[in-house]
Amino acid sequence: MSDPIITVSNLGKKYRIQHQAQGQQQYTAMRDVLASKFKGWFQNRKSEIGNRKSEEDFWALKDVSFEVNRGEAVGIIGRNGAGKSTLLKVLSRITEPTKGSVRLRGRVASLLEVGTGFHNELTGRENIFLNGAILGMSRAEIRKKFDEIVAFAEVEKFLDTPVKRYSSGMYVRLAFAVAAHLEPEILIVDEVLAVGDAEFQKKCLGKMQNVASQEGRTVLFVSHQIAAVTRLCQKALWLDHGQAKDFGQADLICSEYLANDSAASGKRDWTKGRRAPGNEWVTLVSVEARAGDKTADQVGINQPIEVHMDYEVLKAGKVMIPNIHLYAEDGTLIFIAHDWFSGWRARSRVVGKYKTRFNIPGNFFSEGRITVMVAVSTYVPFEVHFVEPDVIAFTVIEVESDHTSRGDFVGHLPGIVRPLIATQTDILT
To answer: How far apart (Å, rounded) are the C-alpha atoms in residues 93 and 307?
Structure first.
């Protein structure tokens, strides 16, 4: 039986925005102001512009509905301007909705931007107690968590320093530590991983996982890092132009989002007048994923795939190594492959056109969308001639007739790769 801790029904948030008339002057240059200051032109013009502004209604959120159960971690994804931060502000009671309703059954802690809820003139120590009091905690309850917060944030030396003197990294470490450790039933986090080093990001993810899975609290997490969403969250809400495009199992929603967000197909070339990636030494001509004799926009899970990379060497004299970087849907690097075996690693290229084929066996990738980045490099001395990210993409699918490592299991199989591995089981007794 479900136990909803957050219920959002037909939520809408409207803003009134202003536009200037088409063709209207957007600003007045300083030289014009100085030239006309004795004639009053600037003030008159400013008044005229103000009177000619038009207004319209903009719906940052429109008819958004979903439920989150107690103990679930939910990722909120979407492009910039999709309404993610507006939704969190409404859920955090910072912004009033224009229509619809939000029902929260528990204490909420929010980390929406660096230093949310902090008073700049107070010290780190004082802000910890202030935030706990805002959450309705007693002084004794805050003291019980105080040492854990300080240890997590790693700001012991600066506890009695006003937070206005903190670096952005110190600020966000303490803000996250306070929000995560003061035992709210609902933790709302917006892009905290965008600030801080890799070790801090790892700590944040680990703490949020612990909050949701072991402590049974609810986490709402907005991030553009899809890999973090799929690792942390069981469910995901996809917002698009203020509306809920989809809501469900996180890995499936993220997969759909990334496939929709990428315009890349299985082939791309620069033979039709477009400026090709490269430099004075080498330029890219085309990249293609092939399955058999066809371009592989879509390929069966058990089919071998070849990535063809065509390029033109314009000047002789350098050793040039083509390489490809393959990424999973969540942005995780699957592998890098270099052309080590054709003999060109030991000798300089001559002027001419080249094709390098990278052969990938069948039953290697799991289902999902694979994105390819290509590059040509010289390694001694090291030099990158060009890098072209997201140049092509293809989708690996599985049909019922495929002989794969799935066997007769019908559920969802996670993972980036799914090799068909030979196994043997013997009776020992």
So the answer is: 51
